[in-house]
């Protein structure tokens, strides 16, 4: 899949003529080349393009060539005589299409059903080749000179500030020429054309900040405009250098698929739901999503943009780092949010993906175009983030930052590989590079078995053994893998540390006598699970001074150990009950989610007892919170539903009440939700945006045809994207089989954008046991119709919607539905294999509990 490295692009000059209202556009690109040796042909990337002219200038000679297609991604230019080594200039004219269904390449969308067309680019990973011919590999980091010829009334944007805007030869059009970019790989080039508003947001030092929104929506960027400067300032302080680029525009895309934002230098793009909100839609969740996403994308301006990966196998260098730093920066900007606990969410998500035998390593060889389709996942993002957090705990925060700065200074404006990053960190600790490679270079979760050895005539010791943790039913071989695990430990006698390199080791503890408890993952950041044996987990749960992160790691470890048959249900339920009344909202949510995860084990005869467990652990607290803020009738409430209610109460309400109403069979909460939903359908001002999603979804659980009709009518009438998302998710929660079948018709309704409806409607149905079979059966019948509405490779992800299925029959149905079609889409076969494995593991786990929960 790699192009010939002997043909070296040096710089690009790109000119496009484009009107977003038209499906086609034209352009030309001139590429300065350096040939390392004489040759007669040049291969470059071009996908679904019509190349109209080829001209190569070599000294005083001009040569032409006819392009021939190598494959779907590449074309070859063959010249009549050999080209000399040295500097050449290749110019190509071309015609192309704006993508209408994909949010990829150069695509177009409307903001709302009747809004004007907007054209926006999204080139990561290989979308640039859909827009123009080029050498589309991240290692070619080059300057770009861009000009856009557009209708006079439209705004044109790119990575750099405009140099000039001049009337074009065509009446009513203009040509906007932009300043040449610093060196950029093709996937970071960005362009946009349309009827936009530009909201000025001040500056950070010499750096101007603007928010680019669809016409008339500039005021919806108020929250983002008010906080973004602080994020930039925190990042400048962390890296010890100013923002690397000349401007910072943030642009809202009406609808995205499979991504929330993209870090283009100088022109970051965001899904509009992350960036824009009217005052009545600025919920706590919206604010948190924007700040953390912006911190991630802005971290990329240094790590990923200023220093870029050399090839896609080091994508983790970009995404893991940005995910890790987003937590740190969000915590600095909004310390009251306790955002560092999000590292626990990342650890849990990573381990859920990494338990599969089909899981890949963080640093994964990319040898085919298909390999790229599986890179943007929990392993690249969350596992890499968790490994970085673990090694920061080992090195210390200051030492880690010094290593990051060293890396940036060594490779600024260039490309680097994973080993370069590890070498920069290894200056402070030479053992670190090999230890980190043991986590980035192989898949899987280490299981550390920790056993206390307390001889009567000596000091206590800890015997440690490592293996790969494999769930029940795994097809993996005997666990022989080894990691170099940085263990941070704590007992009543004090702290200990050990780099566990071998399969087994013994550590002397600082305690004078056998400790009452052992914490083998002090801080909770370790990317490994701990099996304590006997009642060690329960004794740790009762230990004084456990941090919130340690408790959350303990709860998630209980899940992984139960899946592996190393912890029984009684022990898991005891942990849930112990931490259900914890003072921290995040811990209570983690406890509730653990109890919800046990649902597949519940037999029909156990449903009432399972509901009683919910009531015993969480019922009283859920009803005390109620669906509405306690001061909802006071002047302190705003139109989004925020109030003097604490953030913790509001956020816990969103997690806890739907679970207690559903799994806890709480009739009172369900009845209240139905009344509130009916009131909102009659009067949109009766319920704030903060409560809307959870109330509508809970009301829909027992929906009759009248309520479904009302929800569908509200969906078709709504012009507000966040409101439509909540309505679609509510429709996804409809349980009655005939009504759930009727709801699925929305997925084929041309009036409803499939990019909005697929996840919240079909995704919800596919994840719920009551509607899963019906959803899969419907998909099997309507797969061809549905695929026509999706982007070219989006069907690859359809099997993943059903990866929580938990029966042999579901596994067989999944294979029958997708086996013949998965190979057609980039990444489709691997996505199906992982979904089938996840289903097989859940089936085996369930079968291992013959009496249920």
Task: Describe this protein with a few key phrases.
Neutral Protease, domain 2, alpha+beta, 5-stranded mixed beta sheet, 8-stranded mixed beta sheet
In short:
With 853 residues, the protein is of the alpha+beta class. It is 39% helix and 21% strand. Among the domains are: 1-194, Sandwich (Immunoglobulin-like); 198-302, Neutral Protease Domain 2 (Neutral Protease, domain 2, Orthogonal Bundle); 308-440, Neutral Protease Domain 2 (Neutral Protease, domain 2, Orthogonal Bundle); 446-541, Sandwich (Immunoglobulin-like), CATH 2.60.40.
At the fold tier of CATH, the topology name of the domain at 1-194 is Immunoglobulin-like
Count of separate DSSP helical elements: 25
- In helices, the fraction of residues equals 25-40%
Q: CATH homologous superfamily of the domain at 1-194? A: tricorn interacting facor f3 domain
End-to-end C-alpha gap: 50 Å
- Rg is 28 Å
Instruction: Please state the overall shape, judged from the principal axes of the Cα atoms.
Output: globular
The poorly predicted ranges are 632-637
Describe the main β-sheet briefly. Answer: 8 strands, mixed
The total count of strands amounts to: 28
Structural write-up:
It contains 25 helices and 28 strands. Among the domains are: about 1-195, tricorn interacting facor f3 domain (Immunoglobulin-like); about 200-300, Neutral Protease Domain 2 (Neutral Protease, domain 2); about 310-440, Neutral Protease, domain 2, CATH 1.10.390; about 445-540, Immunoglobulin-like (Sandwich), CATH 2.60.40.1910. The protein has about 850 residues and is of the alpha+beta class.
């Amino acid at each position: 899949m790699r192009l010939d490295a002997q043909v070296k692009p040096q710089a690009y000059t790109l000119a496009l003529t484009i009107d977003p209202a038209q499906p086609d556009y034209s352009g030309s690109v001139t590429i300065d080349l350096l040939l390392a040796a004489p040759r007669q042909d040049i291969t470059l990337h071009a996908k679904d393009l019509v190349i109209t002219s080829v001209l190569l200038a070599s000294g005083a000679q001009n040569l032409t060539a006819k392009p021939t297609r190598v494959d779907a991604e590449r074309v070859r230019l063959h010249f009549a005589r050999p080209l000399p080594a040295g500097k050449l200039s290749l110019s190509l004219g071309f015609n192309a299409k704006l993508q209408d269904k994909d949010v990829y390449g150069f695509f177009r969308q409307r903001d709302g059903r009747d809004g004007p067309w907007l054209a926006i680019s999204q080139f990561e990973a290989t979308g640039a080749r859909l827009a123009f011919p080029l050498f589309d590999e991240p290692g070619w980091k080059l300057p770009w000179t861009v000009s856009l010829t557009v209708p006079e009334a439209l705004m044109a944007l790119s990575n750099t500030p405009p140099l000039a805007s001049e009337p074009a030869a065509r009446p009513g059009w203009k040509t906007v020429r932009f300043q040449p970019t610093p060196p950029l790989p093709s996937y970071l080039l960005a362009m946009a054309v349309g009827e936009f508003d530009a909201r000025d947001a001040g500056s950070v030092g010499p750096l101007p900040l603007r928010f680019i929104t669809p016409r008339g929506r500039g005021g919806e960027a108020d929250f983002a405009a008010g906080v973004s400067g602080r994020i930039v300032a925190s990042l400048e302080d962390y890296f010890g250098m100013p923002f690397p680029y000349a401007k910072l525009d943030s642009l809202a895309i009406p609808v995205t698929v499979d991504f929330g934002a993209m870090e283009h230098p100088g022109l970051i793009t965001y899904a509009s739901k992350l960036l824009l909100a009217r005052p009545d839609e600025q919920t706590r969740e919206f604010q948190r999503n924007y700040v953390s996403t912006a911190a991630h994308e802005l971290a990329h301006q240094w790590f990923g943009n200023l220093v870029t990966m050399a090839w896609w196998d080091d994508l983790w260098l970009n995404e893991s780092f940005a995910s890790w730093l987003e937590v740190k920066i969000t915590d600095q900007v909004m310390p009251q949010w306790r955002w560092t606990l999000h590292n626990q969410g990342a650890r849990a998500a990573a381990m859920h993906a990494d338990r599969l035998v089909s899981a890949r390593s963080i640093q994964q060889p990319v040898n085919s175009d298909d390999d790229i389709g599986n890179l943007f996942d929990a392993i690249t993002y969350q596992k890499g983030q968790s490994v970085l957090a673990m090694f920061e705990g080992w090195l210390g925060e200051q030492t880690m930052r010094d290593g990051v700065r060293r890396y940036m200074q060594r490779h600024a404006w260039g490309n680097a590989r994973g080993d370069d990053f590890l070498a920069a960190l290894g200056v402070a600790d030479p053992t670190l590079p090999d230890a980190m490679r043991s986590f980035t270079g192989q898949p899987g979760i280490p299981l550390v078995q920790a056993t206390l050895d307390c001889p009567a005539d000596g000091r206590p010791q800890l015997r440690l053994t490592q293996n790969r943790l494999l769930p029940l039913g795994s097809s993996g071989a005997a666990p022989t893998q080894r990691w170099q695990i940085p263990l941070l430990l704590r007992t009543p006698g004090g702290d200990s540390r050990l780099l566990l390199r071998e399969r087994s080791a013994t550590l002397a503890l600082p305690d004078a006598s056998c400790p009452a408890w052992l914490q083998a993952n002090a801080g909770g950041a370790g990317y490994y699970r701990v099996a304590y044996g006997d009642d060690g987990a329960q004794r740790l749960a009762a230990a004084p001074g456990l941090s919130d992160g340690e408790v959350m790691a303990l709860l998630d470890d209980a899940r992984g150990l139960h899946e592996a048959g190393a912890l029984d249900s009684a022990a898991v339920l005891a942990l849930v009950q112990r931490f259900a009344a914890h003072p921290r909202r995040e811990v209570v949510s983690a406890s509730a989610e653990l109890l919800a995860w046990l649902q597949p084990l519940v037999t029909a005869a156990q449903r009432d007892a399972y509901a009683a467990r919910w009531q015993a652990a969480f019922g009283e607290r859920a009803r005390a919170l109620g669906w509405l803020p306690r001061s909802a009738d006071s002047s302190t409430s705003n139109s989004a539903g925020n109030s003097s209610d604490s953030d913790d109460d509001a956020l816990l309400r969103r997690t806890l009440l739907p679970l207690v109403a559903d799994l806890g069979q709480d009739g009172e909460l369900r009845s209240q939700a139905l009344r509130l939903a009916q009131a909102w359908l009659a009067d949109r001002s009766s319920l704030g945006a903060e409560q809307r999603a959870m109330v509508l979804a809970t009301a829909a659980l027992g929906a009759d045809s009248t309520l479904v009709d009302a929800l569908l009518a509200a969906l078709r009438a709504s012009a507000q994207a966040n409101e439509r998302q909540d309505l679609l998710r509510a429709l996804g929660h409809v349980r009655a089989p005939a009504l759930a079948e009727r709801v699925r018709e929305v997925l084929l309704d041309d009036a409803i954008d499939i990019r909005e409806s697929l996840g919240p409607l079909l995704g919800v149905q596919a994840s719920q046991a009551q509607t899963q079979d019906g959803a899969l059966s419907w998909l099997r019948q309507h797969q061809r119709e549905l695929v026509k509405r999706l982007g070219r490779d989006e069907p690859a992800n359809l099997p993943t919607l059903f990866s929580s299925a938990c029966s042999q029959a579901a596994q067989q149905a999944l294979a029958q539905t997708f086996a013949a079609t998965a190979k057609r889409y980039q990444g489709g076969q691997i996505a199906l294999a992982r979904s089938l494995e996840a289903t097989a593991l859940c089936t085996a786990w369930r079968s291992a509990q013959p009496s249920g929960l």
